[in-house]
Amino acid sequence: MAIFSLSLKAWILVILWFILAHVAHKWDLGPIYILGTGFCTIFLNLGRRQPGDVSAYSIFNEDFRELPRTLNADAIDRDMRTGKTNYTRLRSKNNLQKAHNSNGGR
Length: 106
Known about the structure:
By secondary structure, this protein is mainly α. About 50% of the residues lie in helices and about 0% in strands. It contains four helices and no strands. Helix 1 runs antiparallel to helix 2. The longest helix has 19 residues. The chain is elongated, with a radius of gyration of 26 Å. The relative contact order is 0.04. The mean pLDDT is about 80. It comes from Gossypium darwinii (Darwin's cotton). Pfam families: SAYSvFN. This is SAYSvFN domain-containing protein.
């Protein structure tokens, strides 16, 4: 059960959070307390990357290296030029005409 898997430190933090939430509510600071809790949770859980880890955002990686199998404009352009996939089917004149006719010409 999840209740028993929390450490004593986690229980103390949860109880402290509820006590402070009650105080914030009495002072009409409830929304600010909730937002502050959210920001604190985000910033306290930001970690450091270990050597060799890559970010999902290529701008933060060494040599702007992307994750494997990332779909971007270069990959689409390369696939279209080599004929690997048929992206042009999505924009073909027939499909646009069919969509136009199915909407009653609107």
